[in-house]
Each structure stands twice: as structure tokens, then as C-alpha cells.
Fold:
Amino acid sequence: MNKITQLFNIKYPIIQGGMIWCSGWELASAVSNAGGLGLIGSGSMYPEVLRQHIQKCKSATNKPFGVNVPLLYPQTDDHIQVILDERVKIVFTSAGNPKKYTSFLKEKGIIVVHVIANVKFAIKCEEAGVDAIVAEGFEAGGHNGFEETTTMALIPQIKNAVSVPVIAAGGIGSGRSMLAAVALGADGVQIGSRFAASIESSAHENFKSAIVNAGDGDTKLMMKKVVPVRLIKNEFYQRVQNAEDYGATAEELKEILGRARAKKGMFEGDLKEGELEIGQVSGYINEILSVEKIINEMVLEYNSTINSLEKI
Structure:
């Protein structure tokens, strides 16, 4: 048992990313049932939809699970109220100031974790009173840090800067990469892309196939003038790239992005005009597996890699 398994009362220090359009109750409950910590991704849900997912997750698992709450959406207060109403005990916050909700949630007996991408905000998280920090490197999919610091460079810096447990994220999708994160100082790992391509993911099958078919150079960090986001290269990506090459303003990029672009790609399966958010580790993913198989294979590879290193 380590700091993360003890904090969340789980078997393995493996946390599922709370990804929009991928992380419904089926994925969250499957991860929790397999020994990790499942997270419902509230960013793509109306408050009452979130309530339904929480209730279904409770019915599907008796293990701990949580909700990921991106703080950049206008209905955050409503999401927090649903979480309180449904007595969820674990909340991961991201994309905002950790001070905004941390003390309030902790007063309600909720474990709070915040996602960051640099040392400055890691320190702010600790000052805000979070129970743990997710340190997310440049390799990660979806919304990303402006600094473009890789996971390998980020984790040791964060570990040296704070005393709370550190969860590594970005580019982790195997037992070997999990062990590497632990060697760098992480107390656990958060995995998004590998679970996005699982059987239980709520993503469209077209999107899952796009993840499996992606090669090592098929994603890129885009939209840095708006919010950095890592995307699979497609026709929408190319339009953004062309606009950025010609010096498009943030407002012009927002106009190209429009509304519900991520939903179009990840949930509705439009591989041409949709926003396909995924991490660099997609180049490593070559099949769609069940959550249980993914976690079992990760743990087996983690342990076998430790054994092989002991022989050096």
C-alpha cells in the first residue's frame, strides 16, 4: 500500500482520467471494479446528466470512484451541488484556481485533487489544501499546459516542490511507463488515452479506431492562443494549422473551433470535422481492450519489469 492507494482506498495506484465524452459511468465503474480509481468526466455533462451517471456508477460498483470537474465551464457550481447531493467522496478539479473550491469541498469531507502542469501551480495547490496533485506533462491529450514540459522533466520538479502525494499524467499507458513515473518520484499515475480506447469508454467507435490507427507523429498540440489542446491530425486540425500559420488571432481560432467540436469528433464519430483529443501515447495503443484486461496487463508488466531490472 502506498500514499495513493491509502488515500483513495484502492488496490492499485492507477487513476482513470476524467475525459470529456469518454468517461461515463461505465468506464468509471469498470476502472474502480478492476482495482483503480474511476472518474466520471463532468465536463461534457449537464448537471442532471451528471447526477444520472453518479447514480448508475453507484449501482455498478461498491468501490470508491470520483468526479472530475473542469473549472472553466459555466455550470461548475451546479456540478458541485450535484456532487454534494449524491455524496461523492472524491473530486478532481482542473483548468482553474485550486483555491476556488478546495476548502469548501474539504469541509464537506471530500478528498480533493487538482491537476496542474507547472511548479508554480503545484505550490498553489498545496497552499490551497489539496490532498494530492496530478502533474500532467506535455504528452497528454486534451487540454494541456502552456509550458510544454514533458512528464519526465515535470515529475521530479513537482516532487521536489511539494509534500503532498503526486500523481503523474501524460504519456502513461503501460506497466513500463507506470514504473518510470514511480522512478521519477510519482506516487501513482493517471491514465487517459489508454482508457479512452477501452471497450467501456463512452467514446464513439470511430474515435476509438482513430486512436488505435494513430502513429507516433499523428498528434499535435494546437490552439495555444486559446487553450492548448492535443489533437489527432485530421481535416479540422489542418484548418487550424493553416490559420495559425497565417497568424490567426485567438478570436479567429475560436470562430474556427465553433461549438461542440469535441462532441462531434469524440462522441459522434466525425473523424474529418471533429476535434479528436488524445495523447501521444496513442501511437502505442494497437487494440481496444476491456478495462480489466488493460489494468491486469499493466500491473503484470510493471511487476515483471521490476524483476528484470533487479537482474541488471
Q: What stands out?
A: The first helix runs from residue 3 to 8. Residues 214-281 form one domain.
